Amino acid sequence: MGTHQTSISCVLASPKNIILLALGLMLVIEVSVGLPVLSSSNSDNQQIQTSSHRMVKGQRNANLPRNKTKLYNDGTAHSKDYFIDDDMLFLTRTKQNRAGQSKESYRWPAGRIPFTFAPGYSDEEMKQIYYTMKHIETYTCVRFVFRTESDENFLYLRNVEGKCQSFVGNVRRGAQQVALDPESRNCAFPNFPGHVLHELIHAIGFFHEHARDDRDNYIEIMYENLSEDDDVLRNFYKNSDSDRATEFYGVPYNYGSIMHYSERAGSTNGENTITRRSPVPTGVPKPFEGEMGQRERLSEGDVLMIRNMYKDLCPENAKVSHGAIPAKFPDVLDWVVEQDRGDAINFPVESVTEDDDDDDDYDYSLSDKGRKKTNSRFR
């Protein structure tokens, strides 16, 4: 009996076991006080888990990540976890810097934007998307083109149940999803081409207008009419960068932008969540007027932003072909209907799926459940 007790004491007193016991005690303490426990699966998840423990509900510290974690991959050969902020997708937890992406790396070379469709659209639906692209081309120098084998980065247009989403700018990840469900209220009200227009301008490189750094000169956010849920509040944060010489591309605030939220976006009680300041402060640029939250047409400010972002990238012939800005832009739905003369178009349709050893076929309709109703309020 005495010999057995002595052998146990010797084992417990060995240096190796003392170290193991100490590590175990540290782990218990760490979990009990709520410190982050990092997963060893990959560096992205380590960053995500660490950040989530630091976030406090309602916290406004600009140094902390503001996009709540929403993880899923797109089922392509370049799958990667990413983050959702309303209808915008991001690869990293970086802040939204400007009215539009400032780094040239986010722009499409020469203003040329290759695209292809995923299976799941009718010919009529593909035509509506295609002619909406042509509508943008009418007034800007960007060009949407069918993807070729030499195009490494391209828009991958998918009919994803309940979704109307896009990355912001060219994220250079191969197949870059733009999710457009023509039967969802998120995408179909008041008209499908209007929401396609909105998402394509995200893909060109622009954020939401109401999040501009100078927005406090033009609007006020009525937080008392918003939910306290961080999922809602983060859609009303303003962009934090102040490099105004470049961030707005020389274009003043635009109430009528197709990228602006509506007056009652996200309201919990039917009251306005965004109100105009009238008059605007002395000395600030006069804003473009228009209906906040409209999804029917381009505005002068939208077109000027795209032109200015790509003016040094587009070929000269594309820059001169877009012509003058009209006194009033046409309704995009009417314009699209007029363009369709019944001609057959051989659209590119591809199934860009995982071709690696990982055979987890991903279905977007199964991801991020519960946001279908929420998203429809932010229009």
- Main structural class: alpha/beta
Order of helices and strands: HHHEEEHEEEEHHEHHEHHHH
* Overall radius of gyration: 25 Å
Q: How is the biggest beta sheet arranged? A: 7 strands, mixed
CATH homologous superfamily classification of the largest domain: Collagenase (Catalytic Domain)
* CATH topology grouping of the largest domain: Collagenase (Catalytic Domain)
Put simply, the count of helices is: 12
Mean pLDDT: 74
Regarding quaternary structure, what we see is single chain
Q: How many β-strand runs?
A: 9
Helix content: 25-40%
- The span between the termini is 78 Å
Features:
seven-stranded mixed sheet; 30% helix; metal-binding; Metalloendopeptidase; Collagenase (Catalytic Domain); 379 residues; disordered C terminus; two-stranded antiparallel sheet; alpha/beta; 2 domains
Structure description:
There is one protein chain. With 379 residues, this protein is an alpha/beta fold. The protein folds into two domains: 1-35; 66-379, Collagenase (Catalytic Domain). It is 30% helix and 10% strand. It is built from twelve helices and nine strands. The chain has helices at residues 2-13, 15-32, 43-54, 123-139, 185-188, 192-204, 230-233, 244-247, 300-310, 316-321, 332-339, 371-375; strands at 83-85, 88-90, 112-117, 143-146, 154-158, 164-167, 175-180, 219-221, 274-276. The strands form two sheets. A seven-stranded mixed beta sheet has the order 1-2-6-7-5-3-4, covered by helices on one side. Helix 4 links the parallel strand 3 and strand 4 (143-146). Helix 4 (123-139) packs across helix 11 (332-339). The longest helix has 18 residues, at 15-32. It is globular. This is Metalloendopeptidase. The active site is at 199. Residues 97-315 form the Peptidase M12A domain. Residues 267-290, 346-379 are annotated as: Disordered.
